Amino acid sequence: MNILIAADYAAPASGNFIGSMMDLGKHLSANGSSISFVFPSSENTTRDGSWTRWLGKEGFRVFLIDMTQSLEDQFLFLRTIITECQIDILHLHFGLFHSLAIHRRDQLPVEIIIHEHMEYPAGCNHVKQSLRYMARSVVYRAKRIRVVSVNKTVDAAYCFARHYYIPNGLSFSRNNQSSLTREQCRSTLGFNADDKIVLFLGWDLYRKGLDIAIKAVNECRKKDPNIILGLIGVGNSDRCRYFIQNRTGISPDVPWIKQLHAGEDMFSYHRAADVYLSASRSEAFSYGLLEAISQNTPIVVSDIAGTRWSMEYNRSYSYPVEDPQKCAGAILDALADNHTDTTNAQEMIEKYSIENWIQRIEQVYTETMPRKKR
Fold first, then answer.
1. Which side of the chain, N or C, has fewer Cβ within a 10 Å radius?
2. Are the C-beta atoms of 137 and 160 separated by less than 8 Å?
């Protein structure tokens, strides 16, 4: 099989997604298949030391597309890759080439798989959204497009398409050579020994519940002023600052809100943290939660469908979504976790292992391939 992974991914760090693609690619290559990649051209994908160059050094072909060009030019670019690499399956992530897959399907001589990474949008009408997904699944069926969903509810809504529910797997592959210890990471980030770090990852400020996180930590600090909120991926733009001030009444400049630089060594961030907080209003399947669990870090999780799987972890503390007071209580409970109980982190790692994920993705590829090419 010759697979082309196309993803609208241009983050500065490789993260679990690129790590998973790397692991998948190595597995496929070892079994006689090939895998190529295409991503949008950006500062993050073209810089020295980028994860695209990491993929290239591992022997995979990586193509970068200029997304400012017309749809027709994008189509010609895609067709050239398909022909040049003799692609059998086009696997789309994060919406890249989605429009072409629908509207130019008959001109794409490949099997197509769309990977759905999202949950229902926060605050949406679930009945109406389900109907939208169902209608889309009818189109996918007619266009001979299969769907892989990381969220069980979304998967069920794609009922008319050939669909698969496959939760994400945890990859330990990253574009870095070594990882800092807890003490080294805390020192590098400038934290004191008595600081208690609540780590928060987010990019969609509302969906990820940044306002809930800030209100909750502010409440916690009334009992313990050493509690610090460390933010990764949030940024310090005017939009972000306005969001914080407007929705919480708390200045984004208070010293206990720390903006942390996102990097490749995320596992050391989780070791450095005392609690990992997922305050999401909506979530498909959280890479961050898996990474935190893998480092035996206590987690605090909003009680939503997309993260309920993490309640199996015995250092998981949940609270009702949209309730910062209950979130604060869960954070304080997690901070009091003295790690004396036997942890089931290893069981969670094995359940959501990258090996299990690869096996299931490979099964989808095998089913997708025309019989004459299997």
1. C
2. yes
